[in-house]
Design brief:
single chain, alpha/beta, Double Stranded RNA Binding Domain, Arc Repressor Mutant, subunit A, 2 domains, 4-stranded mixed sheet, about 15% strand
C-alpha cells in the first residue's frame, strides 16, 4: 500500500493506493483512520498527482466533479451505497432515508448511515452530502464541523474569487 499526506484548508489528508487507483482519502483524526504501518510513502504515483490536482481545483471552487480511478474496499452493500453517494449533485444534500430508497431498501436508513460512515474515500465520494431527514447535520466520520465546512464550501458561488493555492497548504 502506498500513501501520501496532503495539506488542505479543512484538514491534513491521507491518500492511499495500491498503485493504480485511489483506495482511500481520509481526514486526519477521523473515525476509522488507518495506520500506515509497513506502507510506502510516495508522491510519485500518477493517481496521487491527479488527486492532488483535482482536490486543489475543488478547494479553489474550480471543480464540481472528480474523475479519478477509485477502488474502495468494502462489502457489496457498502459499495452500492458509496456508488449512490457519487450520484448526489454537487452542492446538494439528501437524507439517509432517501438514499436508502435510491438503493431499493427503504427501511435500511441506519444501514445506509453505517455504510456512509465507513466511506474510505471522503470528499471524492461525497458522504458529507447526506444529512438527517429533519435537515440536521449528523454522522460524519470527519466531524460535523468539517461536514458543515464542506457543505458551505460547495454552496459558495463559483463566481467568487478563487482561493489562492497558499490556502491549500493551511489547515483549519
Amino acid at each position: 500500500m502506498y500513501y501520501k499526506w496532503l495539506n488542505s484548508p479543512i484538514a491534513k489528508l491521507l491518500l492511499t493506493s495500491k498503485g493504480q487507483s485511489l483506495t482511500g482519502l481520509y481526514l486526519q483524526g477521523q473515525k476509522h483512520f488507518p495506520e500506515p504501518s509497513n506502507w510506502k510513502e510516495s508522491a510519485e504515483l500518477d493517481v496521487f498527482i491527479e488527486a492532488e490536482k483535482q482536490l486543489r481545483e475543488y478547494f479553489a471552487h474550480q471543480r464540481q466533479h472528480f474523475d479519478l480511478p477509485l477502488d474502495p474496499v468494502g462489502t457489496a452493500f457498502q459499495r452500492q451505497v458509496w456508488e449512490q453517494l457519487r450520484q448526489i449533485p454537487f452542492g446538494e444534500t439528501i437524507s439517509y432515508g432517501a438514499l436508502a430508497q435510491r438503493i431499493g431498501v427503504p427501511t435500511a436508513s441506519r444501514a445506509v448511515g453505517a455504510a456512509n460512515g465507513r466511506n474510505p474515500i471522503s470528499i471524492v465520494v461525497p458522504c458529507h452530502r447526506v444529512i438527517a431527514t429533519n435537515g440536521t447535520l449528523t454522522g460524519y466520520a470527519g466531524g460535523v464541523d468539517r461536514k458543515q465546512w464542506l457543505l458551505q464550501h460547495e454552496q459558495a458561488t463559483f463566481s467568487s474569487t478563487p482561493v489562492q493555492s497558499s490556502l491549500f497548504d493551511q489547515t483549519l
